[in-house]
Prior knowledge:
The chain is an alpha/beta fold. It is 30% helix and 24% strand.
Amino acid sequence: MKENYPNVIRDTEINLEELKAVLGLPVDEKVNGYGLNFVGRNFARAKYAKKTEKELRLNTALSKHIDTTQNLVLKGDNLDSLKILKNYYSGQIKCIYIDPPYNTTKDEFVYPDKFDKEEAEVLGLTTLSENDFDRMDFSFKTKKSHNGWLAFLYPRLLLARDLLSPDGAIFISIDDNEQANLKLLCDDVFGEENFVEIFSWTKTATPPGLSNKSRKTNEYILCYEKNKNNYKYFGEELDGGDQPLLNDGNGIGKLVIPKEKIKFNWADGIYEAGTYHRIQLLEPIKIEKGIPNKDISVQGRFKWQQTFLNNEVVKGTTFIVKSKKFSIRFQRFEDESYKTPTNFLRDRITSPQLDKENGNVDTNETASSQLEELFGSKVFDFSKPISLIKYLVNFLVKDEEIILDFFAGSGTTGHAVMDLNKDGGNRKFILCQIDEPIKADKSAYKFCVENNLPPVISSITVERLKRAGEKIAQDIEVENTKSGIFDEDKKQIPDIGFKVFDSIDAPQLKIDDNAQISINLNGIDALSRIYNMIFTLGLDEPTQVPEVVVEDHIYKIGTHYYITNSEKISTDDFASAIKNGKVFIDGWTASLNGTLQNYKEDVKIVF
Length: 607
């Protein structure tokens, strides 16, 4: 229970109200206790469990390399998109990065979740009073409402937890308006024992002087794992794959290093005992082909004592002396030539510091320049630099694994993943972005109008991916044409494509005044109906391209046959599909004719 529902168990005790919420039983909105409580909490939890009323329509016009790509872009409310993704991708996402809307006095939510009586009835919340609704209405309409912001984010984080792989991690960018509350919310959703760190990112080199108290240069990135593990995060390469043994802050000590464990980048010869910069060689040695003729006895201010060094040698640690300064460096066998993200100590605040010097991570100013270079104008405010996302993703994501961003914004995460794949990798991205209208006074609005694009944020998302992908391909092609490069050293152009899906209302059953039932279809094309079946069933990866068996009717992936508009399919086509694999029928377009009746035991109807 603790693994799947960490919020149910707190301080080794079962929280009965949380357990009732998980089981869908009536709960008291006003119950107090240890943990984060906010108005609309159980309402938001019920939204997590509610089935989506949306489905997807394949947008071939906006998609790129649609037949080969393994990347996805889902346009629409991310609450619906995450629920659609969950059927197949539950437990499969290695890394999630999100930069949700910050809760400030200037911002209004563009994800208008309903928290009213009608919605409460749909969700089965029957114990809410008029006072409860008045309280929620006031809280959610008030700017900078902690209640509204938390109720908005809560169900989305619950879905994110479901999507994470057992060894996956989520990174959430946030400022100081909600950093404290977000930490408590994530403790509830992911379990406080799965907390990794609050990283501090230097967002600007030129902080505004608007406050009389401080000038803000940093934002925060919360990191949680699905299940806390001992995996070592990749921070940065070591200098030459080794680290210095000296530490000037320590006292003077003596060490003996086994001759077979140390190598010298020195010329062959005899080297007398004496002082070499900060190290004293206690006995003369003879070097031949980099190998000393005996164990090395040295004195200096070292990080280690002899007992510790002996244990390191047993583990496989080796040593190297690169210069005549006799600066001994060590290489741990298990280090794999990299170190974890470093902690940064400043005043009383200790946190891993993501900054330009420490991790080659840029600021917002660089992010703006990157977008202007792609678009020719400033089309997005407060975008994150791709170097930040690459740095975070590179902590734990290996080849072939999936990165999800369900607040895609300008598409930085997708751009970063494509850029990472220049190393020959095949990391994949899934982006979700609502069609948020762009205000007419923004340069992004002008850009969209001039380029015949709908003036919504998702247009910027998709256009950036296209332009960034083209630039990556061009840069690789230029590099490959340079003289002196062998064919085997030429780089392959990574997957710079993506399938785009629009969120639309799903078909619905309607009952008229005469109790007659009708189906309100949404008129989407046959291939989109097939993709919706693929997403709903969760048996095949949705990035695959279904093979056409009968145009506009039967498609297959492996031995799975997906059928839409079944009334137009012949008995022979049905028989062939059933003979060769498992058959799934689109329930919204199914016809209970004689053909389907004959095979009703051999097929599964999908809604």
